[in-house]
Amino acid sequence: MTNVLYVEDEESLAMIVSDSLEAQGFIVRHVLNGQQALIFHNKYKPDIIVMDVMMPIMDGFTTAKEIRKTDLVTPIIFLTAMTQTEDVVKGFKLGANDYIRKPFKIEELIVRMEAALKKNGNSMSPSKLVLGSYTLDCSKNTLSLGESSEKLSYRESELLKRLIENKDKVVPRDEIIRTYWSNDTYFTGRSLDVFISRIRKYLSEDERIKITNIRGVGYMLTVD
User: Which residue ranges does the Swiss-Prot or TrEMBL entry mark as DNA-binding (predicted)?
Assistant: First the structure.
């Protein structure tokens, strides 16, 4: 599971890019300017940062410079309309791992992100995960059993993926809500229980699979 910090002040573009990345299994946190990016970076430690340069409050170059004072590892990719050679050179000198000119293809962005992550020793999670008799395809958000296949919502797929990747471990409720629903003021712990119930129903054909509610703490997935 790859956590992406996406910094872009053009909200319509940000929505398109975020949706496209999420459809490919990334977890995307979008912020509007460099100041917000610094706060998020320091609090959540993303796996990779994709950032515009021309932004209000704090531009991308300044943001990268501040991040590199304490973090020399997390890949930074500039995604910007600034195409002059001196801008590209400046971006790399400030610690960027890559520099993509707008307009761009989402496929190119994903390939560049994957390359930066691999170079950093943090490759992306496999797109297919096996759980008992089931196979979860994270890129298509489908759960398959034999010849049958169930289409999951993005959040159902990501939640199940998180549980599989932490099999036999407790995944805290607060961590799940913060990761997938931090921007949804109407989402509650009760809502999370509903999502877990749906996932249990999807997995009901394999009796070996259990998702246990650790009261007051979180959930643990096990396979007998």
Answer: 126-223
